Amino acid sequence: MASNTNITTGRRITSRLSYSFGAFGHDMFYATLSTYFIMFVTSHLFDKSAGGQNDRMIFWITTIISLLRFVELAIDPFIGNTIDNTETKWGHFKPWILAGGTVGSITLAILFTNMGGLNQSNPLLYLLIFGVLYITMDIFYSFKDVGFWSMIPAISFDSAEREKTATFARVGSNIGANIVGVIVMPLVVFFSINANHGQGDLRGWFMFGAIIGLISWLSAVVVAMGTKENDSLLRKNAEKTRMRDVFKVLARNDQLMWLSLTYGLYTSGIAITNSLELYYFTYIMGKPGEFSVLASLNMVIGIISVLLFPPLAQKYSRRNVFFLSISIMIVSIILFTFAGTSLPLVLLAAILFSIPQPLIFLVVLMILSDSVEYGQLKFGHRDESLTLAVRPLLDKLGGALSNWVVGIAAVLAGMTAGATASDITTHGQIIFKLFMFGIPALLILSGTFIFFKKVTLDEKEHAKIVDELEKTWNEHLETNGEESMADIVKEVAKDTTYKAPISGTMIALSDVSDQNFASGNMGKGFAIKPSDGKVFAPFDGTVEATFPTRHAIGLRSDNGILTLIHIGIGTVEMRGTGFVQYVQKGQHVTEGQELLEFWDPAIKKAGYDDTVMVVINNWKDIKDFNYTVESGDVNHGDDLLTLSKPEESSDDSDQK
To answer: Each residue of 280-292: pLDDT tens digit?
Structure first.
């Protein structure tokens, strides 16, 4: 099995930077497609002289986009399965990232044209070709999207390295998504033959689309060349994600269902307002060039908001952060509605609307992740991949609804080809503001009401769930064929030596202050007062249980011994702060391999006991349980226990 231990520091940095640039180009493409392409369609694809024909074409194009996005949702599970089943010398993901980047970039550039005037000379043929190109682009974008974000586990098995890679990617994606707004109008005007009151022309918009496509393609090439997939048997995953499975998980997990409804309404609302901001600068203020100022500010604010989330959530709780963010957003919508053409007021309103978005996204993402354990405790089955697939599915639904609404808003408000700010009537402005502010506010508030009434899963509730899962982590383990856990233990060919998983002072389990462990309810074992923060595997075996708080781990030895190593008392409340996990569920580990690491001062500063409890959960299936050491100082790797195989029953003897 490959390991990351031999990867040099330079290789890691190259991989992080390559992946970050990949996220940069990937989100540039998505922002262009989801926000600015619809502006091109409504305002520049058609000639003003065509009148009502333009409005009908815009309606059909936006309807096609929305319908195709819904169709593509049904295709997504097949895309994921195709990637999983791809076997090449370059790995599962990179071939699709490169293919998706290439096809997506070419089709994006073509879509930013009128296809040689076909939109006017033969509208029906144009719509047909447009539909084929758009669904092709969307499918290949999805291949790239799924492949790209699925690479994080493949790049490294080291949790710390994954977190760093994800952080680099998050910064890159935030800059990429926002920098498009900074450069869109300057690029369009620079390459346009006719400035058109700062709105540009067809040539300018084509060059903008082509440049975004080129950067997106280059970023895919950099990912393919600069990252390396970790080849391991751990990544042989036969699980298939089907659409019906996603809905099945939603239906039986009430917290996931209500959170999904909340997020679906919310993300549709903000997508509409975000997509119409450039229209506001162009047709209400008459200053499309000033939009770059807002986009620049949003880029900086996005990074700051991401960094602010951990301290805010720790101090006020995620639920309160959510309601505070929604309150700021509603205030911003009200201010935006009455800002008129005042640039300072418009910028203030738009910034206030932007600040909460990363915070709400992270709140939803955290609760979504917590709902995995909620469902596991409730149903005895962990639907991790299916649960986490819900968010991108809802983002696509929100994007589909947004494209359709924006197209209708542009037509009804008169913000179509050839129009300028002076052409928009008072009636048109009212209609536009209704779509930009009224409908999103209704969607956001509806989602917030559902969140307030139905979503009860918070940090404290999740801590209780994790605590319960610790007690029952071994009850739902799958075994080979029809064998029971006891049957597996009976296959032990010789005594098993249990090594000390951590250095420190050994004490009796009955002396710890946690009654679940002291009473023996969790199993038979011992405790260690740690002298350092490194936890090692006590035997060769498989990681059977990990926890999002990273404060405990469940292992099964190669001959069936089940053990839980639990760091500290009450440390579940720390929600992973100060803990690092180096292995993943399903991974095979060898005796002495580092599993976890924790920063002891963080535990003590938080006011918790740092005692490490170690229990054998299936000790009743074992004949002899002999302590080699019962007290005093030990070092990790010292022999602590000898576990003997069970006595054979008379039935077993008769059979033999």
So the answer is: 999 999 998 899 9
Give 13-16's long-range contacts (Cβ < 8 A, gap of 24+). 14/226, 15/155, 15/165, 15/226, 15/227, 15/228, 16/164, 16/165, 16/168
Q: Which residue has the tokens 């991974």?
A: 587
E strands, 353-493, where?
Answer: none
- CB 646 within 8 Å of CB 562: no
- Rounded-to-integer distance, Cα 545 and Cα 567, Å: 14
- Would you state the structure tokens that stand for residue 149, as one six-digit string? 């974000």
pLDDT of residue 490: 47
Average pLDDT in the chain: 83
Q: Are 272 and 66 in contact (CB under 8 A)?
A: no
CA distance 328 to 444: 12
CA-based nearest residue to 173, from 358, 349, 401, 40: 358
Distances (CA, A) of 289 to 86, 176, 181, 278, 571: 45, 19, 10, 9, 52
Nearby residues of 623 by Cβ (< 8 Å), 6 or more positions away: 644, 645, 646, 647
546: part of which helix (H) or strand (E)?
strand 541-546
Count Cβ atoms below 10 Å from residue 46 Cβ, excluding itself: 23
pTM of the model: 0.76
Q: Show the tokens assigned to 204.
A: 């300018």
Structure tokens, 382? 């962990």
Above 60 in pLDDT, residue 159? no
- Calpha distance 529→567 (Å, rounded): 10
DSSP assigned state of 50: G
Q: Is 49 helix (H, G, I), strand (E, B) or coil?
A: helix
Q: What is the pLDDT of residues 330-370, one digit of tens each?
A: 999 999 999 999 999 999 999 999 999 989 988 888 888 78
613 to each of 221, 227, 526, 544, 569, how far by Cα in Å? Answer: 48, 39, 6, 17, 9
Output the DSSP codes for 549-608: T-SEEEEEETTS-EEEEEEEESGGGGTTTTEEE---TT-EE-TT-EEEEE-HHHHHHTT-
Distance separating the N- and C-terminal Cα atoms of the chain: 37
How far is it, in rounded angstroms, from Cα 32 to Cα 210?
Answer: 11
524 three-state secondary structure:
strand
Radius of gyration of the chain (CA): 28
Long-range (24+ apart) CB contacts under 8 A made by 422-428 are 422/286, 424/283, 424/284
Q: Which residues are catalytic?
A: 566
DSSP string, 162-199: HHHHHHHHHHHHHHHHHHHHHHHHHHHHHH-SS-TTTT
